[in-house]
Amino acid sequence: MSRYAAFGPPAATGYRFAMTTFTILLRSAALSLTLAAGAVAPAAAATDVTGDKAVLQWLDKVTARVSTVTAPVGQKTRIGNLEILVRACRYRPPEETPESAAFLDITEIEPGAPAREVFRGWMFASSPALSAMEHPIYDVWVLDCLSRDDTSSTG
């Protein structure tokens, strides 16, 4: 008998035991993942609250001035030579993780030149860099959404 015989193929009973154990572990992991996905799904299905106004903050990079403006949904708001139209503003209810987001159309208006779209899309209060506006003079980001029946979304 070779001195390496102990490292040979497993005996039939040992192999069956290992495969049975592996199968049980694999099925347990699959069941755990299925149950975990079911527990997370209701939280993802929560409905957002629609706000009437977006609270925006903006930075003038030339003067280093930071200002806050409240922009009503559906109305144009002017910041320097930028015209901002808030198309939608949504936030999560107070019992959820705080988050506010606004869908913005931002257009640059230069005298004697046609209007140029600078940004169109969703901006998120918790992640301003996720969907940032690229502009040489101004930075604009969402702080919060407001409703008629409350003063803040807490987002």
TrEMBL record:
Pfam families for the chain: DUF2155
InterPro entries according to UniProt: DUF2155
Protein name: DUF2155 domain-containing protein
UniProt source species: Caenispirillum bisanense
